[in-house]
Structure to design on (131 residues):
């Protein structure tokens, strides 16, 4: 059995050293910050027929990042007959590749579950007047 204990440093009359202003805050996860930038890059991509970004439209089903900062994305389109079927996944890939610290990006175009309007965010519904 492994036990952990916390020992108190000896009492000192000296004031504690000031915190390093360049040190990340407690609980900071650099991968979380990178994932936020990946999502921001995805939000720059639009279906040309709908004036809402594909993230808010609900076209992105999964975004994963491994320890090497390789990103995998499962996405769909509003319809299998979408005229940008060949272009939009590559647009997403290029946008995410442009994020500093991302190494590789793999896009899988998936059709299950089929996209429907209920997958749109509230932001998208407001933008499209679909309450």
């Amino acid at each position: 059995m492994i036990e952990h204990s916390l020992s108190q440093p000896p009492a000192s009359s000296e004031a504690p050293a000031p915190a390093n202003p360049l040190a990340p805050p407690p609980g900071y996860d650099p991968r979380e910050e990178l994932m936020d930038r990946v999502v921001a890059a995805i939000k720059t991509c639009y279906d040309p027929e709908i004036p809402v970004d594909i993230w808010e439209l609900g076209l992105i089903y999964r975004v994963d990042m491994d320890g090497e900062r390789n990103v995998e994305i499962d996405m769909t389109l509003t319809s299998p007959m979408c005229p940008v079927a060949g272009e939009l996944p590559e647009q997403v890939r290029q946008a995410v590749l442009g994020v500093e610290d991302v190494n590789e990006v793999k896009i899988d175009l998936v059709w299950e579950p089929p996209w429907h309007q209920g997958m749109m965010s509230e932001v998208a519904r407001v933008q499209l007047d679909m309450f």
Remarks:
- The longest strand covers residues 60-65.
